[in-house]
Amino acid sequence: MAQRLLLRRFLTSIISGKPSQSRWAPVGSKALQTSQYSPGYLTVAPSQARSIYTTRVCSTTFNIQDGPDFQDRVVNSETPVVVDFHAQWCGPCKILGPRLEKVVAKQHGKVVMAKVDIDDHTDLALEYEVSAVPTVLAMKNGDVVDKFVGIKDEDQLEAFLKKLIG
Q1: Residue 58 catalytic?
Q2: What pLDDT does 9 receive?
Q3: What is the rounded CA–CA span in Å between residue 36 and residue 52?
């Protein structure tokens, strides 16, 4: 059902020529072209290329799949990484997660966010001494440079990221 809604919004934006939501960023493509046609005639004339709109949050946030994935995407990352250790059953994690994603997305790629579910990856939680959730680590060049436990407001999160970025 969500896919149908997304497809409907996409098609509406193509027909109207403008994005359906302002939070989407345009990605131009000359390969995708639409045709103009009138209901009374069977003539089809190509028009200018349209833009496709996608969200940018996905490019800065990712879920860790296993130990080697963590090693590859976090420890070996050249970009500073914020690691969010969370759990599905944790109420404060459900509040902090979206806040943290929003603040990380504002950094435009200067920092990325890895999400680690402690129930799925207890080995990583033990290795990084996570004793409570939510726990957030700031990692740079494979080393933990800062850490906090619990909920923070957006201003505190932005200060945390600025300290990480430098």
Answers
A1: no
A2: 73
A3: 17
